[in-house]
Specification:
Length: 362
């Protein structure tokens, strides 16, 4: 098993180091290779996704990714900004299925901006297409308008598009995932306005017929945004396009009150995957040793489960994280009175210790 490790910018290095610590005590047989990505890669090599980094990622079974983003590079042309690294990896590795769980651990329900009873025990899975839509659709650019509301004026434009196979494959991922959960899929679109969305809805309905044991419903994206804060526990699996999924997954993450806890996976057709925390590079706290490494540690667990064929090791990591929370350890982002505040490395060490204790008991 080969794991490409791309720590990236900001807190990326610190949190990925803790995940690697955890992987190393599991007694698994894997090779690792490190490469720069994002702003640090631009600084060293003039590009956020250097050729060597892309090659390492392509040759690996899985990519463990920290975070990218650094305000120092915001003035660069779009193609050179740190964010392009993640978009490039998705595109070049064909990573189309972005799995973003939003789970609210009972013990952390108080950290949510919603009432605790609305979110305690929340467990939803957003599956977002991540290689299509207006993110990648051509043509795009700037031009002088020849029609529209202001002919002769400058305009910017993008293209929203989805092909049948693109919708079908992400639909299958969603229905399969629902079979392992509560057998409900909500497909989110804007079919009352957009052709692309009506097409998306039709294809979802077609694929849904192959899964009579899974309930499929459709929801407009504006309503979905509202339902997510009104009654989030009514959802099981949400499947949606790239742009709507980008927005709704941030909203869902925030419901849990602890974005520092949420892992994510992005898979391609051969189950090669990129695993990263749902949060960003948090430059304001980088290097301070206070970032929460649990989202990255839980991403490593997803990696073991989905790309490396080690579901038991994944379960063990998740159990160790629950144990550490039950013991009252908290990084600053999830701290509340009566718990014990720890830093990044101490949190990683605690997960390692929980894993070792559990091994000793066996
Ligand atoms: C995400 C991020 C990216 C996206 C950015 C960094 C390009 O917001 O992974 O959700 O929009 O997909
Ligand atoms: Mg986003």
């Amino acid at each position: 098993m080969k794991i490409a490790i791309l720590p990236g910018d900001g807190i990326g290095t610190e949190i990925v180091a803790e995940a690697v610590k955890v992987l190393n005590v599991l007694d698994l047989d894997f090779e690792t290779g490190y490469a720069p990505v994002g702003g640090v890669a631009y600084a060293a090599h003039g590009h956020p996704l250097p050729e060597a980094t892309l090659t390492l990622a392509k040759q690996a079974d899985a990519v463990l990714f920290g975070a990218v983003g650094d305000w120092r590079y915001d003035h660069l042309a779009r193609a050179l900004r740190p964010e392009q690294a993640i978009l490039g990896l998705r595109r070049h590795l064909g990573l189309f299925a972005n799995l973003r769980p939003a789970i609210c651990h009972e013990q952390l329900a108080g950290a949510s901006s919603l009432k605790p009873e609305l979110v305690a025990g929340l467990d939803i899975l957003i599956i977002r297409d991540s290689t299509g839509d207006v993110y990648f659709g051509e043509p795009r650019g700037r031009r002088v308008a020849t029609d529209g509301h202001f002919p002769g004026q400058d305009e910017g434009y993008d293209t929203m598009r989805y092909s049948r196979p693109e919708v079908e494959r992400v639909a299958h991922v969603a229905f399969e995932a629902a079979r392992r959960r509560n057998r409900r899929v909500t497909s989110v679109d804007k079919a009352n306005v957009l052709e692309t969305s009506q097409f998306w809805r039709d294809v979802m309905t077609d694929v849904g017929r192959q899964y009579p044991d899974v309930a499929l419903d459709h929801m407009y994206v504006d309503n979905a945004a509202m339902q997510l804060v009104k009654a989030p526990k009514n959802f099981d699996v949400i499947v949606t396009g790239n742009l709507f999924g980008d927005i709704l997954s941030d909203e869902a993450a925030m419901l849990t009150g602890s974005i520092g806890m949420l892992p994510s996976a992005t898979l391609n057709a051969s189950k090669q995957g990129l695993y990263e925390p749902s949060h960003g590079s948090a430059p304001d706290i980088a290097g301070k040793g206070i970032a929460n490494p649990l989202a990255t540690i839980l991403s490593a667990a997803m990696m073991l489960r989905f790309s490396l064929g080690q579901p038991e090791a994944a379960d063990r990591i998740e159990a160790a994280v629950r144990q550490v929370l039950a013991n009252g350890l908290r990084t600053a982002d999830i701290y509340s009175e009566g718990t014990t505040k720890v830093g990044t490395a101490a949190m990683g060490d605690a997960v390692v210790a929980a894993l070792m204790r559990e091994t000793a008991v066996h």
